[in-house]
Amino acid sequence: VKVKEIQKRELPEVNDEFASEVSDFDTLEEYKNDLRVKLQDEKQKAADTEIENRVVDKGVENASMEIADQMVDEEVNGMLNDYVRRLESQGISFKQYAEITGMTAEKTQALKRIQTRLVLEAVVKAENITASDEDVDAQFDKMAEAYKMEKDQIKGMFGEEQIAQMKEDLAVQNAITFLVKEAALTE
Predict the structure, then answer these.
(1) Contact at 8 Å (CB) between 134 and 141?
(2) Helix or strand holding residue 34 (H, E)
(3) Whether pTM exceeds 0.85
(4) Please, are residues 54 and 66 in contact by the beta-carbon 8 Å criterion?
């Protein structure tokens, strides 16, 4: 055996200089505070999502409905197509992914998504929940920030039909918020 080279990993000293190199902050304390705030925000969002999921799941559990097999099949196909598009955008074919993971289309997940959407749409209708123009505008702001584009440029990509769908989706999200508030009041 012939040793050609020995390397030792040296970690940088964690100080103000390090903080200014890896972030937009001048001091280590500012950087730590920013990380702390971001972690707290992430934990709060995760907790909020968990509460929303539990409330919505309870609503679906208490609802009674009959769903046609064709509707479930269409949802499975839609979910699968969305997944395939995301995989292919990362350079992986679905066939390769399925071979590696053994993944198959799940009807139960599709059924749950349909049930959830139907229950939330029923809440939207029963409670007359809508999405305001401010809600739509805020959604465009989020999209512009996420895609690093101008808000007007994002808006230009949407037709009336897509904006109407966005309003429906936002109304459903508002229904989730409504259900969470109602659940909190009854506890």
Answers:
(1) no
(2) helix 28-62
(3) no
(4) no
pLDDT tens, the chain, 187 aa long: 899 999 999 888 999 999 999 999 999 999 999 999 999 999 999 999 999 999 999 988 888 888 777 887 787 778 778 877 887 887 877 777 767 776 655 666 777 888 898 899 999 999 999 999 999 999 999 999 998 999 999 999 999 999 999 999 999 999 999 999 988 877 6
Asked if 139 contacts 166 with a C-beta cutoff of 8 angstroms, the reply is yes
The encoded tokens of residue 46 equal: 């995760």
How many degrees, rounded to 5, is the angle at CA 95 between CA 93 and CA 98? 110
Residue-by-residue DSSP string for 131-179: --HHHHHHHHHHHHHHHT--HHHHHHT--HHHHHHHHHHHHHHHHHHHH
**Residue with the two structure tokens 């009336």:** 160
The encoded tokens of residue 178 equal 């409504």
Residue 110 CB neighbours (<10 A): 21
Q: Any idea which residue has 């399925």 for tokens?
A: 98
Cα(33)–Cα(151) distance, rounded to whole angstroms? 30
Task: Please tell me what DSSP assigns to residue 13.
Answer: P
**CB-based contacts of 165: which residues, under 8 Å, 6+ apart?**
none
